[in-house]
Amino acid sequence: MNILLSFSYQRKLVWVASILLIVLLLSLYIVQVNLLTGSAFNISSLEGQLKELRESNKSLERTYMETIQLRNLDELASVMGFEKIGYVSYIKVIDTAVAQNLSE
User: Fold this and answer.
1) Range in 14-23, 66-75, 81-90 the model is least confident about
2) Position 19 pLDDT exceeds 90
3) Residue 48 and residue 55: Cα distance in Å, rounded?
4) Cα 88–89–91 angle (5° rounding)?
5) How far, in Å, CA of 43 to CA of 35, rounded?
6) How far, CA to CA in Å, does 61 sit from each of 50, 69, 75?
7) Spatial distance between the Cα atoms of 29 and 34, rounded to a whole number of angstroms
8) What is the pTM of this model?
């Protein structure tokens, strides 16, 4: 009789251990799926930030190229002997005729 009780006890112990193992594995699975979902959300968010940074980088590259072109233009003008204008005076035409025939 003692052997039958111990066999029944062992059987119950195996069932309880099996159920606990299944519960542990299921909870581990749920945690892993939750972490995977969080990682996917983070990747999506980072891809959006990457897109914004690429657009910002393109804008900065355009601004940089414009600045470099203006600097090169200033250097080219100084090499060619051009100077900055200080004061502008205009010619005033009194008569409306552009040219006169003086032979008459």
Assistant:
1) 66-75
2) yes
3) 11
4) 145
5) 12
6) 16, 12, 21
7) 9
8) 0.46
Positive or negative, the CA dihedral 44, 47, 49, 51 is negative
Q: What are phi and psi of 74, to 5 degrees?
A: -65, -45
CA angle (35, 37, 42) in 5-degree steps: 95
Length of the chain: 104
CA distance 59 to 68: 14
**Which one-letter amino acid corresponds to residue 45?**
S
Q: Which two tokens stand for residue 53?
A: 């940074």
Q: What b-and-e string marks burial along 48-76, b requiring 16 or more CB atoms within 10 Å of the CB?
A: eeeeeeeeeeeeeeeeeeeeeeeeeeeee
% of the chain residues with pLDDT over 90: 44
Which H or E run contains 9? helix 2-79
